[in-house]
Amino acid sequence: MTLPRVTLKLATSLDGRIALANGASQWITGPEARAEVHRLRAAHDAVLTGIGTVLADDPLLSARIEDEAPDQPHRVVLDTHLKIGADAKILNDADGGPVSVFCGGSVPVHMRAAIEAKGAQVIALNRFDGPSISFKSVIERLGETGSRSVMIEAGARLAGAAIRSGLVDVIEWFRAPMMLGGDARPVFDSFGLERLDEAPIFTRVAIDECGKDLWERYEKADG
Fold first, then answer.
1. With 0-12 CB in 10 A as exposed, 13-18 as middle and 19+ as buried, what is 181?
2. What is the pTM of this model?
C-alpha cells in the first residue's frame, strides 16, 4: 500500500511555542502566513486535526483564498472518544470539503449516529497508540480511500504523535518574531528520547520571509 505524503504545518513563536500558558494563541503568526496556510490546505487532498484543536479553536479547516474558488480538502478529525459537538463549525460548513471523524471502536453507535446526522463520516478503529487511536492507522485508511497528500494542523499531542510515527515527510514551519517563554505551550509533546541519535532529523530545503514571519520548509532526512 502506498501511504499519502504527510505534511506537518506548524505556526509558532520564535522559541517554538504555540500558545500562552492560559491557551491564548490568536494570532501568533501574521496575516501573510495565514494566507499561505490556506493555499497549503487547497494543495492537499486532506487536512487532519485532533479533537483538542476542535474544542479549543473550533476551526473550519477549509481553504479560503481571496478572489479564488480553491479546491477544498477532505477534513479529518481524530477524536478517540467522540467528544466533538454537533455545533462544531467544521460540521456545519456546507462550503468546505467533506468531513470524516475517526474514533475508537468502543464509542456507542448512537453517538456515532448523532455526528453522522450532521453529514460527517464516522470511522471507528480498534488500533491504538496508548490511549489514543493509532495515527498510523488513520493515515493508512486515508491512503486506502484515495488521499495522496495529508496536511496536519494540530496541537502538541497529535504533532508529537505524527513525528514519533516516522510518517512525516515535510514540515512547513511558520515562526513569528516573538518569544513566549518556558511557561507557554510547546509545539510538541514528549518524544521520549534517551539518546541524541534517536532524534528525528529533517533537512531544511527552503526559507522565506512571509510578512513579519519566517517560513521554513523541511524534508525528512534520508536514512
1. exposed
2. 0.93
Fold type of domain 5-220: Dihydrofolate Reductase, subunit A (3.40.430)
Residue 145 Cα to chain centre, angstroms: 19
Task: List the domain boundaries for the chain.
Answer: 5-220
Q: What is the DSSP string of 17-75?
A: EEE-TT---TTSS-HHHHHHHHHHHHHSSEEEEEHHHHHHH--------TT--PPPPEE
Q: Which three cell numbers stand for residue 65?
A: 483564498
Q: Identify which of 89, 25, 12 has the alpha carbon closest to the alpha carbon of residue 54.
A: 89
pLDDT digits (tens, 9 = 90+) for 157-191: 999 999 999 999 999 999 999 999 999 999 999 88
Strand-strand pairing, 185-186 and 170-176: unpaired
Residue 148 DSSP symbol:
S
